[in-house]
Design goal:
Helix content: over 70%
Shape: globular
Strand content: under 5%
Structural class: mainly alpha
Order of helices and strands: EHHHHHHEEHHHHEHHHHHHHH
Strand order of the largest sheet: 1-4
Distance between the termini: 26 Å
Number of helices: 18
Amino acid sequence: MADAARTAGQAADFETAIAECGFGLFNVFIMICSMPCLSAMVFSATAMSYVMPTAECELKLTLLDKGMMHAVTYAGMIISAIPWGFLADTMGRRLVLISGGWIDGICVLCAAMSQNSSQLMAFKFFDGFIICGPFAVVVSNLAEFHGKKHRHFVMLFIGLSVSIGALTITLLAYFLLPVHIYFNVGELHFHTWQIFLALTALPSLISGFLHIFLPESPKFLMSQGNYSKALSSLQRIYAMNKRKSRDSYPITVLTDATPERSDSPEPIVNNSIRERFGQTKRKFSDGLMQLKPMFSSPYLGLSARVYCLHFCQIMCVNSVRLWLPQVFATMQTLQVNGIRDKSMCAVLDHNSNRRSNTAVLKEECDIHQQPDTYTNNIIVAVVGLIGFLLFFPILRIRGVVNHILKVCLFICTFLVGGLYFADTMGTTLIISSIYLTIMGVCASTIIGMSVVVFPTLMR
């Protein structure tokens, strides 16, 4: 197929054009640039899980406050999903990745300077609001820069990057949170957990910086009718991968169902405010029209099934993952205090009844800051990383991918139920590690399925 397009001037579609670029230095570079963005999403979703066992004393957090800390981040993601999708499909992937990374980094730094729980909740909401865009876009962006031959490796890379991000934040908590840090800057008071939060802003800032050096997605440019820019982007990829000049790229004409559009179809430099508002309104209407296929055949039933599946998967995995550091911290407290019963019921009962005794609470916060508290979380992260390395080669076997979701979700039903009967820290560690690893594989499979079955403007 690729050879057929080598004749000068012959038209080629996107798959043919990207196949000519091959796999090389550019693909490695875009993967490196994507890793901080994928890690930033993990940091945003899980940072508070490691902060709360330490910060609950200083912020006087109740169980309700802890739940709200997790909820506000996801509330921001939910609210911003459609606006980010509109921006990504009208303004481009590159703009979202650059601006989103920098703005999210600033929001995380503001969260690190919070002096009370209300400020922290507010900035974590904006953290979730912003990071949703770059994370959703980077998955599509990676797929659109790879041909069919290498596209299935993209989902493996995404899963590995998320696992590495989970391991990185756990190691950061292990080495930093046990260190007692306290200093003042004017009227602002800073503790160890705030330094920890500030460091979690680095992936977002690095991601925004690195994506400056990447071109816009050629698939997106073709969907917008900007074939000249798409061809230039493909030539740049070809030159880096093949170590040849851009002019040697064998394809000179791109074809697609979208008609050719000039680079600046509606110049707005000299337009009035009313005309500019009208152009913006038309773009917004066009963005809303891109949602229409989701609610009509043939995508309506498929969309409903995929969204329901993804919703249930995220709810199940976060019900365990976000509370696991708190569970292990409480189990460590029970062990230090000589309490043998470390079941989930004992953990929940302990957390719900201990706020009445301030002296005990202060003592437990000191216990939470010991390195042993975070050892189990490191083990969970390592098992998840190894699990991806073992699972994804299996997915290449014909027929396995069609049944992997059903088998994995069936197994996870019994694993999560087994947590109720776990009465030791070791049993809880084993069950939760296997459960989160398998559910992580399910998440990557669902995302990969979405990238394959939905067209560019619906992702």
